[in-house]
Structure prediction request, 431 residues.
Amino acid sequence: MSAESQAKIILDGKEHAFPVITGTESEKAIDVRKLRNETGYITYDDGYGNTGSCQSQISFIDGEKGILRHRGIPIEQLAERSTFLCTAYLIIYGELPKAAELDKFRAKIAAASNLHEDFRHHFQGFPPSSHPMAVQSSMLSALGCYYPKMSSNDREQDLEYFDDAAALLISKVRTIAAMTYRMRKGLPFNYPRRDLRYVENFLHLMFTEPYAEYVPSPEVSKALDLFFLLHADHEQNCSTSTVRMVASGGANLFASVAAGVSALWGPLHGGANSAVVRMLEQIHASGDDGSQFIEDAKNGKARLMGFGHRVYKNYDPRAKIFGKAAESVMKALGLDDPLLDIARKLEQAALSDDYFVERKLYPNVDFYSGIVLKAIGIPTDMFTVMFAIGRMPGWIANWKEVAETSKRIHRPRQIYIGPNQRDYVSLDKRG
Ligand code: ACO
Prediction:
């Protein structure tokens, strides 16, 4: 970052100069940190579309060009040559791991995969109708109670135990997700296996039965690993900003990522992947090939889920990668899902329609991911939990960055537009 030029603002006839700072990818920002002290004014930016809330070394997005890089490495290269855990290490620690470092990281994650037996009682406390995201958020909070040394809310101490806490969360978020699945179906819980790798272990925890071991095909394992990898981090999105916000108050890693899960749940964020499949199913059931739905989306009667992005005004690079993966995993599984055909038709129609072209609305990562998850056998209402498993490294890396570098609590201001001062009226006089 460098500060070379200045931006000048004239307020009430007086000129004020503020430094312009430039990021390593030439992103420019006006540094207004002294604005309020010097002028009494604040900036107003509903939804933070023009606000840099932090300086970060983790991920870079150029939404206009459709670029995503983690620690400088393009997502396309990671998708092609890396794995989820190797990418997780890169995102959290800043460098690709050497072979011994990766082995150690994997071993730590494998060793942490089981849950304390008491968790069975926690699961019993939830009704089978519980949404998996509600369970996941609660369980991650509860998890901190089992590791008080790692979740002390004393920054120095929490950082001292960071490596253990990070591996533990990456591992157990997956065990919790699988146990939630089995609890809701009334199936016996499975224990994790030390001999299986991350994704295979997750699929075993989900689908092995006492009478039938689940052995995934290599295509399924590869597609799921890619799904997690593509979701591993994404700059200052809604849930990551939430994690940073919670961390800025000094809260421990467990509490911060539990808040991230809640933030991810909404249909405009992580909830979009299940909304896409519900949308495709509705289109299919109505006999539409997608054309009517496109018209409804243009007329504001419907929203084309999995399309559009706050930052990408070009193709989301993750959607391109996963669109291809969807094709090959369906082929490998011998599946012919009509929803994939509808998705392709919607994509083609939208990409050539003025409404979508003018607004720069392209498929985002969620557009094809739901179809792949469905093919693997993941129930629709678990899709967002799958996203949370993938996003865990990004949340952890952002928590670490805040804990190591930020001393200030995040505390935005507001423009108050409510009533001016008025007197309290006693109950008998309120009419
Ligand atoms: N379908 C139809 N029209 C759309 C869509 C869509 N998916 N997305 C945006 N638009 C339209 C808006 O109606 C608006 O039109 P107008 O200018 O005529 O009023 C214009 O495009 C701009 O849209 P905004 O809502 O201002 O875009 P914003 O950046 O605020 O929202 C968002 C981005 C929330 C992702 C939006 O595109 C959307 O709702 N998409 C569908 C949900 C989705 O897929 N979310 C996943 C995002 S990726 C992720 O979190 C992993």
Remarks:
- The chain has three domains: 3-52, 83-266, 272-376.
- Residues 272-376 form a domain with the Cytochrome p450-Terp; domain 2 fold (CATH 1.10.230.10).
- Residues 268-269, 272, 297, 303-310, 359, 361, 364-366 surround acetyl coenzyme *A (CB under 6 Å).
